[in-house]
Amino acid sequence: MAEASTIHDHAQEHAHEHEHEHAARIADFLERHPRALVLTGAGLSTASGIPDYRDRDGTRRGKPPIHGPDFRKSDFVQRRYWARSMIGWPVLSRARPNAGHLAIAGLEGIGRIGSVLTQNVDGLHGQAGSHGVLELHGNIHTVECLDCHALFPRAFIQGQLEDLNPAMLGANATPLPDGDASVEPAELADFRLPWCSCCGGTLMPNVVFFGDNVPPARTAIALGQMERADALLVVGSSLMVYSGFRFCRMAQASGKPIAAINLGRTRADDLLDIKIEASSERVLPLALQLLTTGRSPSETPSIPLDGGIL
């Protein structure tokens, strides 16, 4: 028993040493490139209890996603989306920033990064206190009317959904990424859709669906962020979607170094100057401590996890 405990202690010590080494590499990278653009993906938010889409090989899990053109033209697809969202969104709404989000906000606060570009739609960067954030794929907590373009808080639409579909309350379903949930098709036959309280029109979450493009104005802002940056730091993204991968191509073309913290393969592995396969919620706070104090992470007090949340 004592021998097993010793082996476990040595393994933990070895893991901590690796985390400190990883943090030192990221701290050095950001010290040399204080205008780095930070590009974040779903892997950053898994520690907040939000499932991600892909495994460590970058392969997508589960059923094919709903496509935007299908949503807009099919009443059945809309019922499928809103039924699943009615069950899954409350889980997402309760998620809170983890240590990785808070560390990114801290790095922004001490001037060690330029701006943040996120592929996530969960809004956790804003909750963590980051200010220079562009949500490339939108925000799941806002809903838009496709007819009059009025905007509504997703929480308001949740009330509508629950009033219209009380039989769905307490449905047994597994939470999926981005506020989705597994709901059997048989449960959709009598599902009633929410509607715009301004014009009675069709509602759609204010996010970029598969099959749709990032709005041109938002794309222009994101490309401008990359042009102004002196490096690119990827956090928690496999970069399998081109809207994220393109920034690695841009950085490489302009001779800007690229670092990545991601558990598993990325589409840009052959473009990376630094690749760290570790949990961002452990590495980034240590890097922030190094940049803030100049001391060894082991000598620095830990970051309070309840700080910086708006």
Task: Give the topology.
Layout: H1 2-32, E1 37-40, H2 42-45, H3 68-73, H4 75-93, H5 99-109, E2 115-118, H6 124-128, E3 133-135, E4 138-145, E5 151-153, H7 154-164, E6 175-176, E7 180-181, E8 203-207, H8 216-228, E9 232-235, H9 242-253, E10 258-261, E11 274-276, H10 280-293
Parallel strand pairs: 1-2, 1-9, 2-3, 9-10, 10-11
Antiparallel strand pairs: 4-5, 4-8, 6-7
Structure keywords:
310 residues, 6-stranded parallel sheet, elongated
Distance between the termini: 46 Å
Instruction: Summarize the helix and strand pattern as letters.
Output: HEHHHHEHEEEHEEEHEHEEH
Percent helix, as a range, is 40-55%
Structural class of the secondary structure composition? alpha/beta
Parts with pLDDT < 50 across at least 5 consecutive residues:
4-11, 296-310
Biggest sheet, in brief?
Answer: 6 strands, parallel
The total beta strand count reads 11
Mean pLDDT level: 86
Oligomer status: single chain
Radius of gyration: 21 Å
Number of helices: 10
Biggest sheet: strands side by side, in what order? 3-2-1-9-10-11
The proportion of residues in beta strands is 5-15%
User: What general form does the structure show?
Assistant: elongated
Explained architecture:
- The protein is α/β, with parallel strands linked by helices.
- The protein is built from ten helices and eleven strands.
- It has a six-stranded parallel beta sheet, with helices on both faces.
- The protein is elongated, with a radius of gyration of 21 Å.
- About 40% of the residues are buried.
- Residues about 5-10 and about 295-310 have low confidence and may be disordered.
